[in-house]
UniProtKB/TrEMBL annotation:
<dbReference type="InterPro" id="IPR047688">
    <property type="entry name" value="Endonuc_SmrA"/>
</dbReference>
<protein>
    <submittedName>
        <fullName>Smr protein/MutS2</fullName>
    </submittedName>
</protein>
<feature type="domain" description="Smr">
    <location>
        <begin position="97"/>
        <end position="176"/>
    </location>
</feature>
<dbReference type="Pfam" id="PF01713">
    <property type="entry name" value="Smr"/>
</dbReference>
<dbReference type="GO" id="GO:0004520">
    <property type="term" value="F:DNA endonuclease activity"/>
</dbReference>
<dbReference type="InterPro" id="IPR002625">
    <property type="entry name" value="Smr_dom"/>
</dbReference>
<dbReference type="InterPro" id="IPR036063">
    <property type="entry name" value="Smr_dom_sf"/>
</dbReference>
Length: 196
């Protein structure tokens, strides 16, 4: 730019004030907005999942208080399931449901399963109680919990616990790896593949 052009440019720009634009505020606003959107999305997903888990007593199969119950999805190896059913995997988290109302228990169970998966836990203990004297049917909570667990995709298997963990009043629950843990496992398994 020559001297004349610079002089003309400065004359034209003489009353112009710079815009007050705080990029920090904009980034913070975007972060808050994104967090709010994520929270709403998670709440919507949870509502959709909870809607699938019935609280209608007529829609579940009653289970006897002292019955041993088990469930295993395709893909869970028999040897793994056998070890799991004997309490052979460490339990880092327990979910207590036996004193909650059915609606509360459904939400607590779903939320705790999601939290456990995010922490990378694969085996948890769900204490539903035997419900010998529960109304309107014996083992009300146990029956609901068994029905719900079969419908939660993240649950790979469950089995009545060993006596020292609550026996038929509790369940070992095997969880699928979270997406993050799956990626971490893939990355660690691929390290060193091409090293000889």
């Amino acid at each position: 730019m020559g001297e004349e052009e610079m002089t003309l440019f400065l004359q034209e720009m003489s009353g112009v004030q710079p815009l007050k634009h705080n990029t920090n505020a904009t980034i913070a606003e975007q972060t808050v907005s994104t967090q709010a959107q994520n929270a709403r999305r998670k709440q919507l997903e949870m509502s959709e999942q909870l809607a699938k888990l019935t609280t209608d007593i007529n829609a579940i199969e009653p289970i006897a208080s002292d019955a041993i119950i088990e469930f295993k999805r395709d893909g869970v190896q028999d040897a793994v399931f056998q070890r799991f059913s004997r309490g052979g995997y460490p339990i880092k988290h327990e979910i207590l449901l036996h004193q909650l109302k059915v609606q509360q228990a459904r939400e607590a169970l779903y939320n705790e399963i999601q939290k456990s998966r995010q922490k990378g836990e694969r085996s948890i203990l769900v204490i539903h109680g035997k419900g010998v004297n529960s109304k309107p049917i014996p083992a009300l909570m146990k029956s609901f919990v068994a029905s719900w667990l079969e419908q939660i995709d993240e649950v790979l298997a469950f089995h009545s616990a060993q006596v020292h963990h609550g026996g038929t009043g509790a369940l070992y629950v095997m969880l699928a790896k979270s997406e993050q843990k799956r990626i971490e496992t893939q990355e660690s398994n691929h390290k060193g593949v091409n090293i000889r």
